[in-house]
Amino acid sequence: MGAHARDPGVRTVLHLSSSSGPGGAETVVASVASGLDGSRYRSLVCLFRDGWLRHRCEQLGLETHIIPINRMLDFAWLQQFHRLLGDRRVSLIHAHEFGANTYGTLAGRLARVPVVATVHGRSYYADRGHRRLAYRAVSRAAAMVAVSEEIKRFVVERTGASARRVRVVYNGIGTAGSVPQEIRANLRADLGISDKERVVVAVGSLYGVKGHQYLLEAVPSVLRACPSAVFLIAGRGEREAALRAQARSLGIDARVRFLGFRQDVPALLATCDVFVQPSLAEGLSIAILEAMAAARPVVTTRVGGNPELVVDGETGLLVEAADAKGLASAMIRVLRDPAEARRLGENGLSRASTRFTAAAMVRAYEAIYDAALQLPSWPSQRSVVVDRVAG
């Protein structure tokens, strides 16, 4: 079984994810699983399907299993997962998103293994009666965590879960290293962007909820005010063909580049003048955090946890969702005023590096694990788990 099985001081945590990304929730799964204190916790990962997250976890040296789930109540999945819990002597399940939270909680109850269930976004589960009931049950049987205060309010209001039973742990990211000038210059050259052009970057999956259509609607106004602007949209998804057609119909396709999935997001951010995220709904955006950590001014919508990340007028600019005119005005403001852009970016870097770190996120989850397992928390953890975590 390995040395960890013989050491009673090391507890095995199984991280269960409904989706395999790439995306913010999946990035958090990999970050938490790889960041736990190895003298106290060992991680393994279980996924419903193959994808980016499996590759990322394996790159990080994490034992990773895929157990496909095929229907609403899949007893075969429960049997295989129960066997995995026993074979690996799992002490705690940390589940992420609706499917993993509900199945993980059910499996945990059957196996008498405690569960931590993290809610990353305003999924459509709350619009269906049986799903509201499921999450109410999860909140009573597991330690439920929301990634922002707004998501906590949504879960409490829409599912009837007790506010006392839903904690908040903010997502966090590691320290962003500086990107060498040579890499930035090479990237601009590869993309055919001159030194005189101003770069606007958006990073996110190309789904309707991400609001890219409103960004494209805003582009003509931005180009009239800032003709040198070029827009880089990184991500893939079902809306790509429709968005490309929209760009052509608006006559802006020469100034908009669809880059697909990128492994070099830090270089893209280092190259840009403005980061924009036009989402219609969010949990706590990893993409925004990465832009803040890169000291880039952020223009985003006043939805989900965005206002908990971005302080309007201090670390970025907030506009209303589905407001193309508002997006255009905010982007123009930043593009026209480099000093203001620099101020917003530097303030964002300071906020991200002090309040939204991966280390703080991991320590907060470790303290929740300790409580679920009735273990004493380390003193350093108690200082991290403040009111937002204790709920």
What does this structure look like?
It is elongated, with a radius of gyration of 22 Å. Helix 4 packs across helix 5 and helix 12 (286-293) packs across helix 15 (338-355). The protein has helices at residues 3-6, 24-35, 52-59, 75-87, 98-111, 129-141, 149-159, 181-191, 212-225, 240-250, 265-271, 286-293, 306-309, 324-336, 338-355, 358-372, 379-384, 387-390, and strands at 11-17, 41-47, 63-66, 90-96, 115-119, 143-146, 166-168, 198-203, 229-234, 256-260, 274-277, 298-301, 316-319. It folds into two domains: 3-172 and 357-390, 3-Layer(aba) Sandwich (Rossmann fold), CATH 3.40.50.2000; 181-355, Glycogen Phosphorylase B (Rossmann fold), CATH 3.40.50. The chain is an alpha/beta fold and 391 residues long.
Task: Explain briefly what this protein structure is.
The protein is of the alpha/beta class and 391 residues long.
Predict the CATH topology of the largest domain: Rossmann fold
Q: What is the SS-derived class?
A: alpha/beta
What's the helical proportion of residues?
Answer: 40-55%
Overall morphology: elongated
Percent of residues in beta strands: 15-25%
CATH class of the largest domain: Alpha Beta
* Helix run count: 18
Number of domains: 2
Instruction: List low-pLDDT spans.
Output: 1-5, 379-391
Sheet with the most strands: spatial strand order: 3-2-1-4-5-6-7
**Mean pLDDT across every amino acid position:** 91
The whole-angstrom Rg is 22 Å
* CATH 2nd-level architecture of the largest domain: 3-Layer(aba) Sandwich
- Which oligomerization state do the chains in this entry correspond to? single chain
Number of E-state strands: 13
- For the termini, the CA-CA separation is 37 Å
Largest sheet: 7 strands, parallel
Q: By CATH's scheme, which homologous superfamily of the largest domain applies?
A: Glycogen Phosphorylase B
